[in-house]
Amino acid sequence: MQIQSMFFKKRASEKLDDAILQGNMKRAKGKFVDGRAKAVAEFGVWEEVRTHAAKVRDRALANLDAYLVEFERNAVRRGAVVHWAEDAEEACAIIAGIAAKNGVRKVTKSKSMVSEEVNLNERLEAAGVQVVETDLGEYILQLAHEPPSHIVAPAVHKSKEQVAELFVRAHGKPRLTEIPAMTREAREALRDHFLTADMGISGSNFVIAETGTTLTVTNEGNADMVTTLPRIHVVITGIEKVIGTLEDFATLIRLLPRSAIGQSITNYLTLTTGVKMPGDTDGPEQMHIVLVDAGRTKLVGSDLQEMLRCIRCGACMNHCPVYQNVGGHAYGWVYPGPMGSILTPVYVGLENAGDLPNAATFCGECAVACPVKIPLPDLMRKLREQQFDRKLRPWSERMVIAAWGFTATRPALYALLSRIGARVARWMGGSEGLIHWLPGIDGWTKGRDMPAPSGRTFREMYRQKRSGASHGR
Amino acid sequence: MGARENILARIRKAQGRAGAAPTEAEMAAVREAIARHEVGPQPPFAHAPDRLAQFAKECDRTGTTLATVASERDVPAEVARYLAANGLERSLAGWGAFAGLDWAGAGIAFHNRPAAADDRTGLTGCFCAIAETGTVLLLSSPAAPKVTALLPETHVCVVRKERLLDTMEDSFALLRREVGDPPRAVFYVSGPSRTADIEQTIVIGAHGPYRVHVILI
Ligand code: SF4
């Protein structure tokens, strides 16, 4: 996906003015947040399982190389070919190569965010291969030529009227008004592709070292078509997805659908290991697994390593007040919301995504919702520090922060300046006690007034209270 | 050096381990950790006092319908009842394990082959079922084609009561004991296929079956 994250501010304000989007986002928010809350409440041991989940992810990440080698050994033992790709270009070249070598003309795909990262569809299409997205949301977006705006519900920003319009153009049938009829029409359109594709491409939510297994998690069953029917199955996934055992998977899968959509389990979970076995009537003859780095090793061993625990559930964005208002496209790359505000700057460069670590109110909801306990606000703060150190923020902002730092470490000066500041601010508030304009941050005061402070500082009030209390003793 | 070597070396350097690839001792430690098959905490309802009731409750939630029969001989009659009740044609593609039952007697055309795209109903057995989530688990093999559970609009699955387990971890233990390595596909089915990709509105029957019916023996 083309990176647009440098335009976050502009795109965010466009999205705020988009009435259709605002309606779609409001509807989705309730369903995701309430659904998860209900599932968590009836679960009983949520915190215990979260803690264990973070532990099993950390265990594999702490020895990532050995877990990957063990995974590779077992996958190869079962007849899969394991490929390693350092970057997007390599990943695409490997998969385009497999397609070319096997005379592949049509590919069916189930949802894979890593394939969005590396622009795989574009690359295959350029090589003359027809690529069909089969997750309903991804299919809609492929028709619309748009990137996903959510990692679990990619077309969350679309209304049914918008979908109906796309289907009229793509399927050439009368316009539909009901969602079940639209789903049926898409099912029929895609059935034929499932049966005639030469190659299926899927992601893998985890890869299991113990058995060399990859897996898919869906409600639609499209991943099962993609990984079962074509003669070649290609898995594209990130190197951080490795876990130790099937039991680790059982722990994580109790959290994933509950966090994502409030479901206790998805309708389909499929562990795919190796190629079809002798005598099997279905399953692929070739299985290729492409393990992609593309920036992940920059997180390994860094103070942001915890981010690699992410299981891509989407809960952090569902609970983020910024995401809820601007939607996923404003973030300008594959991963939106709080998790994207960390991954995007690391994968595509902090200089290209400078606003993202700052696109937060620091309310902390994301860290509370995260099933693998990633301290998302802390990690964003670390990226802000890096921005400051690398002089990536505007000169004026850095000056203000430096001045603040200077003052805050000198208590007497701090007391004096805050006393003056509080009194000036009170005077600016006038008789209504509201400040309509503040120098330097007039963008902020354009949309709202700032309540004026009382004119006295915390320290003044604290001192008075202390002396009052001692008088009373 | 290739991508594999570069990636492994970068990981090791970043995590402060010497050398370009994991040592034998490190690999042994990983295998040891794996061999423990540590089971994490499980929710209380995963070990319900009445396993069958838990299974039934979850089936209801995921949209799987449930019927109980006394023995395998009674399966064709229950299938006939179900097909009639849903207005479905009396013809199905089924796993060979059920070919010997008296289908003709129940007025059903039984096709002993993997389901094709135009089969309306597929009949399968299962490796086991899981009460915690109302799930049936199918293992792919020459005798158990996965497509039969996937392509038709209706999936009927026969489950033996003694194969009903509490949790997914139990299913893994059973898999290791009875089969060893997982086969190509280990397929957990919990209710009919669905999507909520348009306006987060749930619609049943996305790409897989519209109906899943479990017959418990
Ligand atoms: S950061 Fe946590 S909450 Fe966000 S997608 Fe990843 S696992 Fe889910």
Tell how many strands the DSSP assignment of chain A holds. 12
Task: Bin the strand percentage of chain A.
Answer: 5-15%
Total of helices of chain A: 22
Mean pLDDT of chain A: 93
Query: How many beta-strand runs of chain B?
Result: 12
What is the strand arrangement across the widest sheet of chain B? 1-12-7-4-2-3
Overall pLDDT confidence of chain B: 96
CATH topology title of the largest domain in chain B: Rossmann fold
How many domains is the backbone of chain A divided into? 2
At CATH level 3, the topology of the largest domain in chain A is Rossmann fold
**Largest interface, C-beta within 8 A:** A-B, 101 and 79 residues
Provide the low-confidence segments of chain A as ranges: none
Rough outline of chain B: elongated
The CATH architecture name of the largest domain in chain A reads 3-Layer(aba) Sandwich
Quaternary state reads heterodimer
Distance between the termini of chain A: 68 Å
SSE arrangement:
The complex is a heterodimer of chains A (473) and B (217).
Chain A: H1 8-16, H2 19-41, H3 46-62, H4 64-77, E1 80-85, H5 88-101, E2 106-109, H6 113-118, H7 120-126, E3 130-133, H8 136-144, H9 160-171, H10 179-196, E4 199-202, E5 207-208, E6 213-218, H11 222-228, E7 232-238, E8 242-243, H12 246-261, E9 268-272, E10 286-292, H13 296-299, H14 315-318, H15 321-326, H16 337-348, H17 365-369, H18 376-389, H19 395-408, H20 411-429, E11 434-435, H21 442-447, E12 450-451, H22 458-472
Chain B: H1 3-14, H2 24-35, H3 51-62, E1 65-68, H4 75-85, E2 91-94, E3 109-112, E4 121-124, E5 128-130, E6 135-139, E7 154-159, E8 164-165, H5 168-178, E9 185-189, E10 194-195, E11 203-204, E12 211-216
Parallel strand pairs in B: 1-12, 2-3, 2-4, 4-7, 5-8, 7-12
Antiparallel strand pairs in B: 5-6, 6-9, 10-11
The structure holds iron/sulfur cluster.
